[in-house]
C-alpha cells in the first residue's frame, strides 16, 4: 500500500497516486505525466483509474495523456458535460486492492467538483483520508468566484460541502488537496502540506465562520485575480487538450538566429534572475524570473506566439519547458545559446534597468521628485501597506493598462521584494519607456527600514 | 516547511526529517546517514538537532555518524545513562522555524522512551503530529517484553503512555512511528503507513482494550522473538557505535579466492533467490535471500566472522552491504565475482536442494513416509495452522537446536511460502544433512490447495 | 567538441553521437533513442543529421524515431533503395561545427555500406577517426555471408574496402565501429573498445592476410549463424520500422492471470538466472537468461505471439523490454508479479531441471550410460573441443531439429558454462522431454578438470 | 576491459581509470574521489594501483584520499622525494588483467614526470595508448617554466621526451593527457579530447619544430602565468595533502548572519553570473563567476580566510564547493540563503556596476574622455589586439597592482567578453573605487563591430 504526492512547483499543484495489490489510481494528474507511470512501475502496480476532482482552470490536465500511456479510465463529476471520460456520482465506490474510494459530490469551487474519500478495508470503515480538490486546502478553502453570475450559489454550495460533507468525515481524516501554498487558487494556504480535518476544523480561518450567511458574505467579498489563460484551460479541460507525447526539446540558437526570430515576431522570454536581467537584456525581452513563470506566464504570454527562451542553465531550460507546456504554451522556437554573453559578444545592443534601494527611493519620495512609483502587487497587498504616492497597477493587468502611464515620466517599478517589479520593468522597456528603475528590496526593505513614506492607512 | 519519511526496507525502520526556516531536525536516523544530509541540502536547511526516541535495539543508530557530518546535537530520554548526547525531559521544547517540538516521556517499550509532539506555531496550538518511536505503530502498539524481569511494569507503563499521554493529543494528530509493516518490533502493523490518532483509536486492536489490567495481561501473553544481535545493538546504542564513514566497498573475488577465504574461516553468505540457491550453491554457504537479510541476519550471522557475499547484481550487493552495516556486521571480505557461473566454470563442486511442491508433499505425508517435516515459521504462525506431523523449530533458533534433529533422516524444510525454508535447508546442508528438500510454496500452497494434511486444531 | 559512444549491451551494438558548435550528428542510433536527445540537450546542441552505415540486420534502427523527435535528416548509402531518408555517395561531406564528415563507400558487409571519415578542420586534414559500421571492428572484420549468392563478390569488396579505402586513411585514425565484443556480427572482436587503424593493421588477424585471394577464401570459409529475426530486421530497416513512442510498460499479472494468458497462447518468457530456472519454473516457459536475450531471442521468439515476462527485479524487467523492442518484439502482455513465489504460493505445479556437474557427467560418460548429451554451442566451438559422444545441435536451431531427438532418452544439456544449456533444457521440457538435466559448468568445468572424456580431435 | 576519462571542468583536469579482470588502475585522481570507487564497483573491479604522472601543481591530488578508501598503492616518479607512495622507474611494468602498463620517464614539464604506456597483451605488443600527464596534450605540449632557474634544462628534456620517447611509440598510439582545453597548463590545447600520436605528429604546432635548439628557444620564449596557489599545491602534493573525507556541506546563513560573518573577516565570494553581480551585490564581495573559479580562485583567494558563498542554485553551490576543495580552500563558513533577494529584502545596502557596450565605449575613447580602460586579459591576448589607450593589468595580478591605479578616475573594466572584467570590477569596488563600469561584450564585441579604436599593432 502506498500513497505519494507529486507537487508541481510554481503552480503549487498537488496530484496524488496511491495503490495496493496490482492497481493504482491517480488524482488530478499533470500533463507531463511520465512521473506517474514511473512510480507505478517501481511499485509493481498498474494505473487503472484516473480521477479529475473538477475541471481544473490553472493547468492543462494530464488525464488523457496518462490514459494513452496506461489504458486507464478517466472519471470526473457529472455536473458538467465533459468531452472525455466517464461521470461518477455521489456514493460510487472503486476498489484498489484493499483501498476503497467513495465519491462525494462537493460543489462550491465549481458545480461539478467531487471529493474522494479513502478507506482501508483492512481496518474498519472510518475514513483514512479525503482528496478534496479545490474545495478545501490546508489553511484555506476554495475560491467561489469562477462561475460568473453564480457567485452566491457557489459560496453557499461550498459552505454545505465543507460543513455538511467534509467535516463530518471526522477529525482523523487526512486531507489531500489539489494545491499547496503559492497557488493562485487560494491566498492563505499554509506552508505545511500535511494536515487533517480535525486540525483544519480547529484552525483554518474560514472553518471558524460557522454562520452560513456570514461565510457566504465573506466569500463574496474576497478578491481574486483570474489570469487570462484560465479561459484556455477551461476549454482544454472540458473538451480534452491536445496530446503532447514527449516534452519538446528547444534547439540552441546563435545570437544571429535569436535576432532573426525576434525580428519576425517571436517573443524573447528571459527567465534569468531579476538582477541579471536588470544589468543587461536583449531589447524587447519579457522578463519573467523562472520561479514566477507559472504565476505570471498565464497573464503575460500569448497562445500561438513563438517563444525564444533565455536561461542560465540547461536545468532551468528544462523546467521552463515544463512550466510552459503545463499552461499550454507549446510553440517554443528555441533558446538563446550562450545566454547574454553570446549576445553581448556579437556586438549587439543590450538594454538595462537601474537598481534603486529602499533608502534612495524613500529619499526621492521625501524630496517630492516627480516620477511614477508603479506598485504591481496584488490589490490586497497594496491595501495593507504602500508607499505614499505609489500608483497601483496589478502586474497581470499591466499590458492592458500601460496606455494610461506617462512614458515621458521616469518610472520606478515596485513590488514585495523586487522580483515582480522586474517583470513590470521589462514590459515598460519593451513599450518604449526609457527611464525605468527597479526597486530591488521593495516593500520588504521599506518595512525592514521602517521608511518614512510608508502608508498603512486603509486604502 | 517540509517533512519526509526515510524508510529502510527490510528492517521496516522509519526515520524522519523535517524542517522550516534554516533548520532541520532528524528523528531516529540510520547509520548510512548521507541521505539526511542530502535532503537537508536540497531543502536549504541545516540539521541542528537529532532525536533518538529510545535506545533502539534492532539497528545501529546513526546519530553519532550524522552529528559528525553536521555538528548537530543529539537528544534522548533521561531514564537511561547514554554514553553520548544530551537528555531531555517532559515538556522540553525545541523550535525549528515555525515548527515546535515538545518532549513527552512515553515509557513502555523501554523505560527511557520519549515521543515528540509536533506543532505549527503559525496555526494554533493543536498538535499536528507525534513521533511515537516504538510506543505506537499504525495498527499495533510497541512490544513490552524487552526489559527482562520488568515485563509487567513496562506493559503498565505502555498503557498509561497510550491512553493518558498519546491519545489525549487528539484525533487529528498524525502518527510518525519508528517502524512500518514487516518490522520485528510488532506483529500486526498495517501495510498502510499514514494514519492519525483518531483512526488508530477507532481501529487499532490494542487501543480497543481499554481495561488497564486486560491490556497488561494481553501484552504479557504476547510472544515475541529476540534476535541474537539485539544484545550488540543495545551495547552500541547505549555507548555509541563505532563511526563508519563511507560505506565499505567489497572487492571482487575469483572462484579460487572465494575458496581460499572460506577455507580459512569466512562465511559464504548467499543472497540470491531461494530458487537459484536450491539449484546450485557453493558448499558450506548460508542462504539468506536478500529480502530476509534484515530479519534473519541478526539471528544467523556472527560478529567478527568474515563474510564473502554472493548476489546476482551490483545493486543487490550494495543493498546487502547497507543491510549488514545497519546491523553492525562490517567484516565483509569481498564478493564472489561472476556468481555461481564462475564457481561452476572453475570445475568446483556445488550443492543442491530438491524442490517439492505442496501436492507431492501432502502425498508423502498421506502415505506415511518417514522424513522430518521441519516447519521454521514463528510459533504464532505454526499454532494457527500446520501440516500433520510437522516438527517446529523457529528459523532463528535452528543453529542452536540442530543437534536434536536426526541427520540420517530425509528432511523437508517448510515455512510460509518457501523463502525462509531455504535458509533452513542451507543450514542443514552446511551441517552435513544430505537428503534435504525445500517445500517451495509451503503453507501458502497447501492452503490454496486445501491439502488433506492441514491441521488447524489448537496447538 | 564532443564524441560519445552509446553501447547497447547484449547486442553489443555501438552507436555514436558527436557535435560541435550548435549541432550534433548521430551514427546508427538504436530504437529507444531518448538517450541521444538527452545527450544533445546536455551538450547544448541540436541533432541535425543521422547516418545509417548500412541496412542493419540485427536490430531495429532508431533513425525514424529519432528524426521524429528532432527533425533531423537521415542519410544512408545509395546502393539500396531505402523507403526513407536520403542517399549519400562517395565524397559527400557534411559540416558539424569544426568537424567534417566525409562519405566513403565501403561495400563488403553489405553492398550499400558506407563509412564516415571524421576530420577536425581546426587541425589539418589528416583523419581523426572513421565510423566503420560493420566493415571493420576492433580485432575483426565484417562478415560477408549475408547477401545470399553474392558471397564471393562481397568478400572481394570487403578486401578492397579494408586495404584500399580504410587502411590508407592512416595509422593515426581512430576506429568507431558499429559493434563491440559479443556481437553476432563478428566472432573475434576484442574486449577492448578503443583502437586505431595502425593498431589493427599491426594485429587484427584478417588484416594480416594481404593476399586478396587468400583473404576472400578465408572469408568464404567462415561459418556464421543467421538468427531468424534478421529477416524481419531487413524488412523493417529497408522500409522503415513502425514508430514506437514511449517504451511499453508491462502490467503486473497475478498467478491466475499468468495461467490464463499462457493457456490462451501467450509465451511465458523466463529471464531469471539459469540456476533459478532449473530449480523451479512455470510449466511451458521458455528460459532465456536476460544476458542471452539479445543473442538468442531472435532465434527463439515469434513475432506476434504474446509474451509474459518473468524477472527477479523491476530493473531487469525494464532491460528486458528494451532488448525486446530493439528486436521488434512488441507484444508484451505483462509480467508475472511476485515471480515464482507467487506462482508456487498459488498451489500451481512447477517444473524443475536437475543440475549435473562436470565430474558426474564425465563419470556417466565413462560408464557408458545411455543418454543424449546435447551440446548446443556454435559449431565452431564444438569443433575445437567436445565431450566424446556429444550430439551437436546449435541452440538457435533446436526448435527446428527437436524432432530428431529421442524423447524417451534422458538428456543432459551442455554448452560453454551452462547458461545456453538451460535455454535448451527449457525447450526440451516444453516439448515434453521428461528426464532433462543441465550441465552447470559445462565445457569450462570439463576443461578446468581436464576430464577424461574430452575430445580435441579435428571434428 | 574498460577505460574512462573523468574530467573536472574548469581546471580541465583529466584523470583516467581503466581495468580488466578483477582490477583497475587510476591515473592522476582528483581529491573528490568517490567517482572512481563508484566506477570500479559498477565494473566489478577493485582499484589496486594509483599513478601520479608528476607532482601536479594545479590541484590537490586525490591519491591519498582514494588509497584510504580502497587500499590501493600509490606510484610516482623517482626524481622527487615524495612524502607518500612508491617510486617507479623506466621500464617498470604493471599488469591489470590483460592490460600492461609500462613506465617511461618523461621529464620536461617537471623533472620527475613519467608517462605510462598501455598495451593489450591479447593483441600484440604495439602500444594501444599512452598516459602523458603534462608532457603532451592534444594540440600542445607541456610548459617548461615551472622549475625556477632550470628552464633551459627542462625545455631540452621535454624535447627529448617528445621526440625520442613518446613519438617513437608509433602513430597508432592513443593519447591520454592530464589536461584538456581550458587548462592553465597549456595555451593551445584543442577542444577535441581524442587523438593519437600520429595526428599530433602531423598537426601539433610544437611537434613541427623538429630542430632541438629552435624548440628549446620557443619554449623559453613562451609566457605563462603562475597562480599563487601553485605554491600550496606543490607543498601538498609533495608531502601529501590533508585527508578530507566527505565533502563539506555549507550551512545556510540569513542576511544578518552573512553581515556578521563578513564584518568579522569572512570574504563574501559571489559566484553568480557577471550580469547578476553587476546589477546588485553585497558590498565588499569578490565576484568570481562559477565557471571562472578554478582559473582565478587560485590567484584571488587566501588560504585560511573564511568564505561565505553566494550562488543562484544548490547545484551551483555544490559545484563551487568541489572547485574550492580541489584547490585546497576548505574554510567555507556557509552560504547566503535566499541570495541577493534576502539581502535586499533586509533593507541592507547593495552595490552595482554599470554596463557599457562596445559602441558606447568606443565613442568615449574616440571623444578622448578621461578614464582608465583597464584590460585584464593575459598579456598574450593583449599583445594581439587591444583598444587604444587601454591599460593592461592581468586579472590575477590586480590585487598586487591596484595601488598603481588612480581611484579618483572613472574605470571601465575590459576583457575578452566581459566575464573576467566583472571580477576586476568587484575588486575595484571592494577597494573603494566608486565609478566603475564593466564592458560587457568587451573585445569580442569590439571585433564584431570592427571598432575604430582597435589597435592590432605589435605591442
UniProtKB/TrEMBL annotation, chains A, B, C, D:
One of its GO terms (molecular function) is metal ion binding. Keywords: Metal-binding. Gene3D superfamilies: Rhodanese-like domain, Ribonuclease Z/Hydroxyacylglutathione hydrolase-like. CDD domains: POD-like_MBL-fold (cd07724), RHOD (cd00158). It holds the Pfam family Rhodanese. Residues 262-352, 367-452 form the Rhodanese domain. One of its GO terms (biological process) is glutathione metabolic process. This is MBL fold metallo-hydrolase. It comes from Alkalisalibacterium limincola.
Amino acid at each position: 500500500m502506498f500513497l505519494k504526492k507529486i507537487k508541481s512547483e510554481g503552480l503549487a499543484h498537488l496530484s496524488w497516486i496511491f495503490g495496493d495489490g496490482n492497481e493504482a489510481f491517480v488524482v488530478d494528474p499533470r500533463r507531463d505525466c511520465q512521473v506517474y507511470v514511473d512510480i507505478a512501475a517501481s511499485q509493481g502496480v498498474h494505473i487503472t483509474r484516473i480521477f479529475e476532482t473538477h475541471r481544473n482552470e490553472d493547468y492543462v490536465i494530464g488525464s488523457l495523456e496518462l490514459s494513452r500511456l496506461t489504458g486507464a479510465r478517466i472519471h470526473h463529476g457529472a455536473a458538467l458535460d465533459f468531452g472525455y471520460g466517464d461521470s461518477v456520482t455521489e456514493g460510487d465506490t472503486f476498489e484498489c486492492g484493499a483501498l476503497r474510494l467513495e465519491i462525494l459530490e462537493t460543489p462550491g469551487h465549481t458545480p461539478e467538483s467531487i471529493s474522494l474519500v479513502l478507506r482501508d478495508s483492512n481496518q474498519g470503515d472510518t475514513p483514512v483520508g479525503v482528496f478534496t480538490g479545490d474545495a478545501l486546502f490546508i489553511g484555506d478553502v476554495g475560491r467561489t468566484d469562477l462561475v460568473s453570475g453564480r457567485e452566491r450559489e457557489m459560496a453557499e454550495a461550498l459552505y454545505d460541502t465543507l460543513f455538511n460533507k467534509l467535516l463530518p468525515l471526522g477529525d482523523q481524516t487526512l486531507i489531500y488537496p489539489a494545491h499547496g501554498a503559492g497557488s493562485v487558487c487560494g491566498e492563505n494556504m499554509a506552508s505545511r502540506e500535511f494536515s487533517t480535518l480535525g486540525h483544519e476544523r480547529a484552525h483554518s480561518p474560514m472553518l471558524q465562520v460557522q454562520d452560513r450567511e456570514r461565510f457566504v458574505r465573506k466569500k463574496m467579498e474576497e478578491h481574486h485575480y483570474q489570469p487570462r489563460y484560465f479561459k484556455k484551460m477551461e476549454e482544454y479541460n472540458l473538451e480534452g487538450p491536445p496530446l503532447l507525447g514527449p516534452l519538446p526539446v528547444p534547439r540552441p540558437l546563435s545570437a544571429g538566429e535569436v535576432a532573426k526570430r525576434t525580428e519576425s515576431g517571436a517573443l524573447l522570454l528571459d527567465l534569468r534572475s531579476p538582477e541579471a536581467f536588470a544589468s543587461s537584456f536583449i531589447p524587447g525581452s519579457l522578463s519573467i524570473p523562472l520561479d514566477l513563470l507559472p504565476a505570471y506566464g498565464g497573464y503575460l504570454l500569448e497562445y500561438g506566439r513563438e517563444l525564444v527562451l533565455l536561461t542560465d542553465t540547461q536545468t532551468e531550460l528544462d523546467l521552463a519547458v515544463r512550466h510552459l507546456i503545463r499552461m499550454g504554451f507549446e510553440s517554443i522556437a528555441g533558446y538563446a545559446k550562450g545566454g547574454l554573453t553570446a549576445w553581448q559578444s556579437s556586438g549587439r545592443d543590450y538594454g538595462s534597468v537601474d537598481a534603486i534601494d529602499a533608502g534612495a527611493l524613500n529619499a526621492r519620495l521625501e524630496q517630492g521628485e516627480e516620477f511614477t512609483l508603479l506598485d504591481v502587487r496584488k490589490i490586497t497587498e497594496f491595501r495593507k501597506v504602500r508607499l505614499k504616492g505609489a500608483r497601483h497597477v496589478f502586474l497581470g493587468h499591466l499590458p492592458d493598462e500601460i496606455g494610461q502611464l506617462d512614458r515621458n515620466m521616469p518610472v520606478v517599478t515596485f513590488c514585495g521584494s523586487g522580483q515582480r517589479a522586474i517583470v513590470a520593468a521589462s514590459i515598460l522597456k519593451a513599450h518604449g519607456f526609457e527611464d525605468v528603475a527597479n526597486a530591488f528590496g521593495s516593500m520588504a526593505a521599506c518595512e525592514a527600514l521602517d521608511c518614512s513614506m510608508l502608508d498603512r492607512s486603509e486604502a
